[in-house]
Amino acid sequence: xxxxxxxxxxxxxxxxxxxxxxxxxxxxxxxxxxxxxxxxxxxxxxxxxxxxxxxxxxxxxxxxxxxxxxxxxxxxxxxxxxxxxxxxxxxxxxxxxxxxxxxxxxxxxxxxxxxxxxxxxxxxxxxxxxxxxxxxxxxxxxxxxxxxxxxxxxxxxxxxxxxxxxxxxxxxxxxxxxxxxxxxxxxxxxxxxxxxxxxxxxxxxxxxxxxxxxxxxxxxxxxxxxxxxxxxxxxxxxxxxxxxxxxxxxxxxxxxxxxxxxxxxxxxxxxxxxxxxxxxxxxxxxxxxxxxxxxxxxxxxxxxxxxxxxxxxxxxxxxxxxxxxxxxxxxxxxxxxxxxxxxxxxxxxxxxxxxxxxxxxxxxxxxxxxxxxxxxxxxxxxxxxxxxxxxxxxxxxxxxxxxxxxxxxxxxxxxxxxxxxxxxxxxxxxxxxxxxxxxxxxxxxxxxxxxxxxxxxxxxxxxxxxxxxxxxxxxxxxxxxxxxxxxxxxxxxxxxxxxxxxxxxxxxxxxxxxxxxxxxxxxxxxxxxxxxxxxxxxxxxxxxxxxxxxxxxxxxxxxxxxxxxxxxx
Length: 569
Hints:
24 strands; five-stranded mixed beta sheet; alpha/beta; five-stranded antiparallel beta sheet
């Protein structure tokens, strides 16, 4: 006898292949809810339960089923299969806490791929489908009389016999999801796209691919875009180069410098059309110290040459790079005003400088400061002395170094995490449970942060960019990045990005933030904080939050109901 089993579970669960348990691998649910305009997610776990002693060997071809969705929101429902990827480098050995699923290599569920609605069930082994439901905007009707709706998922075999059905109630709260005010950037690496898809940099096909990635990023809650004025001086081995990706044309003539901003203008307009509001200019000095300039190529007497790079002592006020910046930055300033984005633009000096880099960072800051008075100059750094000494007025500390910066009461504070935040605080390695990713939204609200930065939307290189990787087969690289750190999306066929569980859960985190902001606008910040901290022994902090998916589900439901009750008064 073959028993087809399908159950609905929450999106926060990670369903590992090879789970042969009798019960579903996560608590089942019967409903999902969200604000108008919000995308809500869930999973359908499925398997074919077979008595192998009775039936013997069963050909899996006989277990192929087709899933059909019915209900008033069926046209707004997307089903993707959850794929496991091979993870060799799951954690940093000896640098973990107790909030990991596993520290071992193996197959980790992460990749989401579209399916033609055919689902192959495996004998006695639980697998999962990822389901997204885009709730209608407030001015769109769901049904004639109710904000609630039902979706029924029907599985049929090849003979079109129904083998299993699941019905889920979908509840739309009659409140429009507010716009995301958070300045949120996930660094887009356009060189990785050119390399993976084997297209020339800034060719028309490259532009088309980039636009698809930017549109997806904006859809999932990214509001700011990393803009490669020059090839970003990030994750590059000293003396080595990344593929040239330079938006600004530079020419050196006997009478001085000329700049062509036409591609920058195209970039800005493309990103704005895709839904991006804010722009961050690529770093003006190299990572980890600000000692050298980015690689900059220029037309010199009709020949393209590398005029600046590792060979450049970038902080010498009498040097060639300082002279170049004195011409370039005022020209760029005029262009940003012409494009109408000067008020929505930030600048970077150097990424992740440490205490020993304070002097070189301050020297770099002195070079650019006269030309960037109108702009916020921000950098990811975690030593409070950079702020106290006036080197950086807008620091972006890592999540595990945030507390001294919050005590300093710095206006417009951001945070970030990356490969270094392995204990206590949120992060999104594949080896971590999804609630460690999603808690970010609540904590961003609790700390009232202005922005969030992550360095890896689509970094498909090893550390220091010494080689390209295949993210489908090497999502973590032993040179430096645990699986899940370097990218949120996979480079799908035809120039289309494929998403991950981690990316969708991050969107849910941002939706939690938006719901908290909405309730605050209806009541007060103190009331929202009371609801979030209710029942906890200690108030929420980045290093102190419930290690419990159910707590997150419950808190979001409480916030939703408070919004509904406030509006119903």
